[in-house]
TrEMBL record:
Domain (Orn/DAP/Arg decarboxylase 2 N-terminal): residue spans on this chain: 57-301
GO-annotated molecular function: diaminopimelate decarboxylase activity; pyridoxal phosphate binding
Keywords, in A-Z order: Amino-acid biosynthesis, Decarboxylase, Lyase, Lysine biosynthesis, Pyridoxal phosphate
InterPro entries attached to this UniProt entry: Ala_racemase/Decarboxylase_C (IPR009006), DAP_deCOOHase_LysA (IPR002986), De-COase2_N (IPR022644), De-COase2_pyr-phos_BS (IPR022653), Orn/DAP/Arg_de-COase (IPR000183), PLP-binding_barrel (IPR029066)
PTM-bearing positions, type N6-(pyridoxal phosphate)lysine: 80
EC id: 4.1.1.20
Gene behind the chain: lysA
Self-association state and partner proteins as the record states: Homodimer.
Residues that, per the record, bind substrate: 298, 334, 338, 366, 395
Positions that bind pyridoxal 5'-phosphate: 253, 295-298, 395
Originating organism: Nonomuraea endophytica
Region (Disordered): 1-28
Matches recorded under SUPFAM superfamilies: Alanine racemase C-terminal domain-like (SSF50621), PLP-binding barrel (SSF51419)
The protein's name in its UniProt record: Diaminopimelate decarboxylase
Length: 438
């Protein structure tokens, strides 16, 4: 544990924190910035760059915000957004459930004693080993995503136990759900077949339906439509099979702000709209209101994280400025995969120069290795400067690669004026470990 940072009462800050940054981030007049009271310059000095920084208190606050917004429901953090053992511990302590989609995520959760009954396991092509580990480990909910899984799962359930099951369906509402590899279609009747097959297996206890609408959804409207459509399915299941399923899982997808101009989906208004739509539709269908489950990932860990990079080289010419840093597409593949855009700030030095558009590029041997296109940076940005990229707490660490045999980044957690390393930097020796022969 290493104490960093300074007493903020003695420093001059320029509040408030900008929207895409962790909520405790303050940009100071001397050019430095602090998150949770810890200087980003000091983090870079002590732990090196590039590095992911995650604000633990911000993660915990976002967990609580969701839990408070949905007091009668279940909030399952989507591990795929960002999971390490520390994060699994924070989520466990905050009382949330955990949505996992691989044996690896399950293993991380179990390694910190995450209660199995609070784990939901989903995935469109779970391997036999994953199904075995999930059932044997006693996960609270297993999400059936294809017909072949029904018998496979039933065969794994030990004598005297029943496995709780959700069935992932494609609600076919509006344009929110294009044809996709996930889930069982209601329209083609596959979802109905799955319901009948699960109900026919004594080892399985069908508790509800599951869906996931997509990513970066910034309005409650698609969720309202989906929850109505799923309630209608519950009524059809009641009419056809005489069972009233008690749960609906609406998945994740809640948007966050990556840019100052963007706004995330507020958990309170999202939960209120969802609950109202569900209650109204259930009343119309004569159904008891099922328990809601939501699986936010990005909106819990995304804004709580940032990445620090050191500028290695600056090239000016042809009307463009390229700022090359010591990381790149191996720690953030999102710009090259999805055209994702980011907010970038120089920290650690005060510049009096006006901001000019610059393109922040990585150090990988790939033309598409761009981190941020045309972002405003001081005209005198130079090698040695430190750059912070906002909202990198979700789908960065979890999507990182070792392209060009580059070690993956450390994760530094900050909280209450302290920084601590929770995932160390990957070194060449770590890469050699997997090589077992010449
Ligand atoms: C089933 C399911 N639940 C939850 C999530 C988390 O989504 P997000 O991080 O956008 O909230 C995903 C990922 O898209 C998902 O596929
Ligand atoms: N990886 C994506 C989101 C995919 C969500 C997975 N279900 C992203 O970075 O935005």
């Amino acid at each position: 544990m290493c104490a960093l940072g300074q007493d903020l009462a003695t420093t001059t800050e320029t509040p408030p924190a900008e929207n895409p940054w962790p909520s405790t981030t303050l940009f100071r007049e001397d050019g430095d910035a602090t998150t949770a009271g810890v200087s980003l310059v000091e983090i870079a000095r002590l732990y090196g760059t590039p590095a992911y920084v995650v604000d633990e208190a911000d993660v915990r606050r976002r967990c609580r915000e969701y839990a408070d917004a949905l007091p009668e429901g279940t909030v399952a953090y989507a591990a795929k957004a960002f999971l390490c053992r520390a994060m699994a511990g924070w989520v466990r302590e905050e009382g949330l459930s955990l949505d996992v989609c691989s044996g690896g995520e399950l293993a991380i959760a179990r390694s910190v004693g995450f209660p199995a009954e609070r784990i939901i396991f989903h995935g469109n092509a779970k391997t036999p080993r994953e199904l075995h580990d999930a059932v044997e480990g006693g996960v609270g909910r297993l999400v059936i995503d294809n017909l072949a899984e029904v018998h496979r799962v039933a065969a794994l359930v030990p004598e005297g136990r029943r496995q709780k099951i959700l069935i992932r369906v494609v609600p076919d509402t509006g344009d929110a759900v294009p044809s996709q590899k996930f889930g069982l279609s209601i329209a083609t009747g596959e979802a109905g077949v799955a319901v009948a097959r699960v109900l026919a297996q004594p080892e399985l206890e069908l508790v509800g339906l599951h869906c996931h609408l997509g990513s970066q959804i910034d309005s409650a409207r698609p969720y309202e439509e989906a929850v109505r459509a799923l309630a209608e399915q519950l009524a059809l299941i009641r009419d056809a099979h005489g069972v009233v399923l008690p749960e609906l899982d609406l998945g994740g997808g809640q948007a966050i702000a990556y840019l100052d101009s963007e706004r995330g989906l507020d958990p309170r208004s999202f939960a209120a709209a969802l609950t109202a739509a569900l209650e109204e539709r259930c009343a119309g269908l004569g159904l008891p209101v099922p328990r809601l489950i939501v699986e936010p990932g990005r909106s819990i860990s995304g804004p709580a994280g940032m990445t620090l990079y050191r500028v290695i080289a600056v090239k000016r010419g042809g009307g463009r400025v390229f700022v090359a840093v010591d990381g790149g597409m191996s720690d953030n593949p999102r710009p090259s995969l999805y055209g994702a855009r980011y907010t970038v700030k120089m920290v650690g030095r005060r510049s009096r120069e006006a901001a000019r558009p610059a393109t922040v590029v990585g150090h990988h041997c790939e033309t598409g290795d761009v981190l941020a296109e045309d972002v405003p940076l001081p005209a005198d940005v130079r090698p040695g400067d430190l750059l912070a990229v906002a909202a990198t707490g979700a789908y960065h660490h979890s999507m990182a690669s070792t392209y060009n045999a580059t070690g993956r980044l450390p994760v530094i957690a900050v909280s209450a004026r302290r920084a601590r390393l929770v995932v160390r930097r990957e070194e060449p020796d770590d890469l050699f470990l997997r090589e077992v022969g010449l």
